[in-house]
Amino acid sequence: MSATVEPVQQNWRWCRKCERAFYAGSSIGRCPAGGVHDSLGSGYYLMRFASPGQANWRRCRKCEGIFFNGNSTAGRCPVGGTGAGHEPDMTINFYIDLNNSFGKIGTQPDWKWCVRCEGMFFAGNTTRGRCTVGGSHDGSRSGNYNFLVSGS
pTM value? Predict the structure, then answer.
């Protein structure tokens, strides 16, 4: 019997300043709260690049954050000035668990999509983090997303 290999990308983290998910596998990326993302206290997350889950999630090449690329806008990136959209890495189309379709084992709930910047942020804390558009993230039109959690 052979082990099943999950189609995932490792090295995703949570930024305690902006509450966003970002890729820490190449660079730390730019944070909307200023400077670079800060992963102090973060768990280790995995992003799936095969179904099940909601498709059209991409990593931004400029800020390293994950954002929804299935709308007519590319959201707002903290890199590039006012009105600059995210620049999608088109090599990987990520699938994120929406409304617990994977089951509760090995996932962390309370992640939301921000309607303003198109980014994914953690809504399980008392703060909604810093949105690139200004103020806090807006998850009012988001479902509940669950991230796969890695042991390291």
Answer: 0.91
